[in-house]
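User: Please write out a complete single-protein record containing the residue sequence and its fold in token form, without commentary.

AI:
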Amino acid sequence: MKPRIYTDTSVIGGCLDIEFEKHSLELLEEFKTGSKIITISDLTLKEIEDAPTEIKEMLDSIPEKNIEYVELDDEARFLANKYIEEKAISENFLVDSQHIAIATINRNDVLVSWNFKHIVNLRRIHLYNSTNLKYGFPTIEIRSPREVINEK
């Protein structure tokens, strides 16, 4: 089976950022070729509504057959709030906790992000996963795009 990769907004936006563009573009290319499936949430789509046209075009360039759409549902809202209650993340970063919860609830193979402060952060990943286990959810792998691309 092809890996299903929940991709947050920072990865898509990273395509236009000098620091992150190389690995963001390589990962998007893997989504285009179908070697990996991109999982996009309604939350991500809402966040990129006001993004530059180039960002929207990059997402639009991925064939529909290689995209899985998921939603922020009640179960994900519940889990996102548990991350806050368990102090894995501050309530000021509810959207970040929602991204993690959506990826967890939908049993994605990995969540990719360039957000090293609130998402791709070892201490926080441990807290997210201990919260997941405490409330009966699976653990989630959280990585940067650099860690999941098939480098040549």
Remarks:
- The chain has a mean pLDDT of 96.
